[in-house]
Specification:
Layout lengths: L2 H15 L5 H15 L2 E2 H8 L3 H7 L1 E5 L2 E5 L3
Antiparallel strand pairs: 1-3, 2-3
Helix pairs in contact: 3-4
Length: 75
Amino acid sequence: MNDLEQKILNRLENLIIENKLSNDNLVQIIELCGSYLNLQTISDYSKDNNISYNGVKKCRNVIEIFNVKFVIDND
């Protein structure tokens, strides 16, 4: 992680600790990041791209967030 990335994370953490961000603000941040990553659940991605569930699991960039597996497809 580079210096800028660490500064961004630290600033965000401080704003959360200081109660300067509401839950709505945090949800907006998550949604914004999700849209840039083009996050989709494996099942949604497989339906949208006509690929089998197992094909997505084996051949796509899959990550787990909050115990849910998502595909990142922002290439």
